[in-house]
Amino acid sequence: MGTAQESWWQRFARLVPDLAKLGVTQVWLPPPNKASEKLGRGYDAYDLWDLGEFSQKGTIATRWGTKAQLLNAIHIAKGHGVQVLVDAVLNHKVGADGAEHVEAIPVHPLNRTIEVAPKKTIKAWTVFDFPGRNGKYSPFRWKHEHFTGVDWDGKARDKGVFKITSNRKRGWSQFVSKELGNYDYLLGADVDHLHPEVRADMLAWASWVLGETGAQGFRLDACKHFDHRFLCEFVKTARSAGRPQMFAVAEVWNSEVGILLDFMNALSVPMALFDAPLHTTFHKASMLGPDFDLRTIFHDSLVQSRPRDAVTFVENHDTVEGQSLESPVSRAFAPIAYSIILLRPEGYPCVYHADLMGPRAIPELPKLMEARKRFAYGRCIDHIENSRDPNFIGFLRTGKSKDGPGCAVILSNDVAITDSSKVLTISVGTQHTGTRWCDYLGREGETYIDADGKGHFPILYGTCVYVREDTM
Ligand code: CA
User: Fold this and answer.
1) Of the candidates 137, 240, 290, 343, which lies 20 to 30 Å from 369 by C-alpha distance?
2) Given this model, what pLDDT does residue 419 score?
3) pLDDT of 93 strictly over 90
4) How far is the CA of 186 from the centre of ligand 1 (A)?
5) Which residues pair with 162 in a beta bridge?
6) What CATH number should be reported for the domain holding residue 409?
């Protein structure tokens, strides 16, 4: 937060003009819903219909601010051509208003298909009445029949994974990740998306939250943990309300591309997925330093097989140190990773705000974003798989017209490579013969295009974005 008084939504509103200038066209904001506790980030979803409007869980505002501030921020963003994506937490609810006695079967925490004890009565925190909201927007009140499981028996004071069996419940959804046998249960009170009242309420929320806030799409949280048929229905419903092109990206955290492709192929409506495999490769490359072969950077990535459906990213709030999916990308490798996601035509790049501003910001990132906006057009000619050296790769963007030449991007992960004698030769075309190309990031490398239209671009450790000097 900028100042003690400034909420996150206010801060975002203040930053919008700068973000738009850097070429940002869409922003994924944190979950707007009321969390289970005052400072909850919203992934601990308590009430989806309370966007910081009602006195619940000891606060009107969410951690991020009030509903009025959110609506104002989205309004300002729209005015600058920036769309906002709502982070929808549909898998679970946390912070129940009350407990009730229900029948449940304890299952093995590491294999939820195995029942480890007979059915028993537990005290489950599954009553959500939302007294502060008092039925406004939605009259729906949740009880145990709307959930598939919980992780706490208040009667025996026992922690575990309890599959709710009251009312002849069918148990876990079969259309979820097969990790841990069946990964329907993640945390809190696990929502039963097969229950008609649950479906009706969440589908109504899909259209309501977009209409109410002016947001224009969704980032869908924890999608490997709930029925993917409901996920499709949710996106379809949101699009049917006059938003046929609405953007949606599902979080399906898996570093195996085959699993992501299977997931995508099973969907009945198109949506994007985060390219966790590419992120994992960036993490691996960070760890290995010069021992990583840059020519393999796209191997087994989602963006390689589904370039139009992959949201590429370097880091996010879950992958940085200390978070649930910790797999940080080193500050040394991050500029290379960002060049790869920002300056190529494939994928849908997502910049992490903490990489752009604040104490751990990557100094090169604003320039790389500008470079995307100004130069990353036209065909992409690769010197990646065919590079003669595992420690450097390059690619050329040909530009949009003869007046708008593109850029030659040269990347190296070998700190010892800085030696002006090492160059990567890329043919940029004889129309550029005699022109001088310099690094847009301001590093010392430069070259003149020779009579054959070739540039002999100096290789420096990290990233160089060579552009024609008269277009800088
Ligand atoms: Ca679930």
Assistant:
1) 290
2) 61
3) yes
4) 6
5) 106, 150
6) 2.60.40.1180
Identify the pLDDT of residue 420.
59
Residue 382 forms beta bridges with which residues?
Answer: 395
Does 164 lie in the same domain as 65? no
pLDDT at 8 over 70: yes
> Longest C-alpha distance within the chain, in Å?
83
In a domain, 1, yes or no: no
CA–CA separation, 35 and 52 (whole Å): 9
Distance 53 CA to ligand 1 centre (A): 27
Instruction: Say if residue 322's pLDDT is above 90.
Output: no
Calculate mean pLDDT across residues 185-194.
97
> What's the domain count of the chain?
3
136 Cα: distance to centroid of ligand 1 (angstroms): 26
d(CA 203, CA 197): 10
Q: Which residues does the annotation mark as catalytic?
A: 221, 251
Ligand 1 centre and the CA of 184: distance in Å? 4
pLDDT tens track for 15-69: 999 999 999 999 999 999 999 999 999 999 999 999 999 999 999 999 999 999 9
Neighbours of ion ligand 1 (CB under 5 A): 91, 184, 190, 225-226
| Domain closes at, from 375, 406, 433 | 375
CA distances to 83, 153, 313, 391 from 417, in Å:
41, 59, 26, 8
Q: Are residues 102 and 150 in the same domain?
A: yes
CB neighbour list of residue 60: distance below 8 Å, 6 or more residues apart: 52, 53, 54, 66
Assess contact for 472 and 438: CB atoms under 8 A: yes
